[in-house]
């Protein structure tokens, strides 16, 4: 049976270390855009110079692991935005925060959890953030990376022309193991068609997962069927879940940096 302790073997250990303010060197702002017909505001942390990249955190929140990955992108020459959509910020991953955050995420109208063939409502907010960043920085567009619960959000952002480098890390929503949900991309049919069209026009998608991880289900197979060779698939060896954070793989990070370099700096 897959448990949090098995998926995140270092999580409980990390929680025992003193918490430092990992966002001290980042600049906080806010972004407001429509979600489900209502103006919605979320904090956004920013750092760096160069082409823009939006990193969407996983459950339980904006952890030190996510912030550390964001710093890697800053060091590589990117302007990085870390939107804070739910949960705590600046703390190491720990299972207690997961248990506290999950009920709030599950009742929030900003996110889809179980429904298939539906785009997450917060996608409109993320697309707005990407448009603003692209308008400010110029260039070919911005990169977007989602992970786990937010893995499919980067695909939803691709519906807007401002996102030209979508990265899908271990996408895990809608939640499995319910039949059919493990293949769903968290997109409406109309948005899936836009993803298919844009991929055919030259906008590839990078996907990264651990091959033994059950949480992404068969979504990578669905993406291959949808966009064919435009889907760049990376299946990592070994056991793990969070490909660029808690179970960070250098191969995964290198693939992201190469993808952003090709798409955002040419």
From TrEMBL:
<feature type="domain" description="Dienelactone hydrolase">
    <location>
        <begin position="49"/>
        <end position="167"/>
    </location>
</feature>
<dbReference type="Pfam" id="PF01738">
    <property type="entry name" value="DLH"/>
</dbReference>
<protein>
    <submittedName>
        <fullName>Dienelactone hydrolase</fullName>
    </submittedName>
</protein>
<dbReference type="GO" id="GO:0016787">
    <property type="term" value="F:hydrolase activity"/>
</dbReference>
<keyword id="KW-0378">Hydrolase</keyword>
<dbReference type="InterPro" id="IPR002925">
    <property type="entry name" value="Dienelactn_hydro"/>
</dbReference>
<dbReference type="InterPro" id="IPR029058">
    <property type="entry name" value="AB_hydrolase_fold"/>
</dbReference>
């Amino acid at each position: 049976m897959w448990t949090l302790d098995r998926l995140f073997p270092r999580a409980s250990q990390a929680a025992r270390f003193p918490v430092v303010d990992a966002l001290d060197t980042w600049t906080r702002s806010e972004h407001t855009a429509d979600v489900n017909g209502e103006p919605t505001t979320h904090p956004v942390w920013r750092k760096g110079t160069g082409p823009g990249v939006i990193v969407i955190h996983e459950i339980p929140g904006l952890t030190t692991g996510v912030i550390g990955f964001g710093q890697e992108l800053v060091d590589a020459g990117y302007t990085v935005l870390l939107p804070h959509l739910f949960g705590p910020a600046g703390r190491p991953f720990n299972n207690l925060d997961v248990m506290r955050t999950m009920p709030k995420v599950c009742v929030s109208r900003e996110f889809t959890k179980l429904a298939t063939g539906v785009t997450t409502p917060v996608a409109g907010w993320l697309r707005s953030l990407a448009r603003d960043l692209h308008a400010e920085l110029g260039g070919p567009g911005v990169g977007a990376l989602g992970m786990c619960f937010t893995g499919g959000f980067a695909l939803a952002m691709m519906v807007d022309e401002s996102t030209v480098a979508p990265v899908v890390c271990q996408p895990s929503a809608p939640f499995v193991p319910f039949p059919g949900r493990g293949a769903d991309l968290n997109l409406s049919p109309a948005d899936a068609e836009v993803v298919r069209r844009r991929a055919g026009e030259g906008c590839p998608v990078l996907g990264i997962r651990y091959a033994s991880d059950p949480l992404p289900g068969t979504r990578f197979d669905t993406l291959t069927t949808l966009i064919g060779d435009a889907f760049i698939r990376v299946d990592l060896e070994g056991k793990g879940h969070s490909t660029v954070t808690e179970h960070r793989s250098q191969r995964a990070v290198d693939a992201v940096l190469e993808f952003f370099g090709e798409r955002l700096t040419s």
